[in-house]
Amino acid sequence: MTSTRGRRSFGTRKECFSASPMMYAKLTNANVKSFSRPRTTKRWASATVYSLWPVLLLQHRMLRLSLAFLDHSGKTQAIAYALEAIIEEALQEDFAAQGKDAIALWQRIHAQPDVFDKLQSRGAIFCSWTKAERKRNFLQLLTSFDPMYDSYYALRLQPGERDLLSPEELELWANAEWRDPRW
User: Per residue of the chain (183 residues), what is the pLDDT tens digit?
Assistant: First the structure.
């Protein structure tokens, strides 16, 4: 493990994540590789990508679902699967005990007409949270992408579940500006 400007980065061959809710990734020659700083060589160029978990997970999920309907090459599919493997590894690293649940919830996200509208409020909430709140509330945020979330929210409150995001709270954040996530 090396340290880069206060962020943890990991020295594995799939090094792409840090302790913060962002991901570093580079796609090259059907491989997903990671890096800690931009560089250019004669063979390939790379750039740093900062992405919020809700944005990255939703975009990748929509990519995977759209590949079923679009003409694409094996290389495209290999890149999508490689990126998915890295995201899974990063979720398990960043969210430890909740990692497997986060992966399951992420893979349940389906294309629906308003899914990107939901991203506006979920992204704004995510950016407003501290790092500790992100780790604590991330599963509830992923659950809120479910099209039936409004319906079963009340059912989940009855047994006394806590830390649920109410549909009213999500609606309040629908037009909010995304704050600086304070990486």
Answer: 443 444 433 333 333 333 333 333 433 333 344 333 444 445 555 666 678 999 999 999 999 888 888 888 989 999 999 999 999 999 999 998 999 999 999 999 988 888 888 999 999 999 999 989 999 999 999 999 998 898 889 888 888 787 789 999 999 999 999 988 876
CA distance 37 to 50: 12
Assign 96 to helix, strand or coil.
Answer: helix
Q: Please give the C-alpha separations between residue 35 and each of 3, 12, 20, 130, 167, in angstroms, as whole numbers.
A: 12, 11, 15, 25, 38
Residue keyed to tokens 């580079």: 26
Residue among 178, 176, 166, 149 at smallest CA distance from 54 = 178
> Exposed, middle or buried by CB within 10 Å (0-12, 13-18, 19+), for 67?
middle
Q: What is the pTM of this model?
A: 0.69
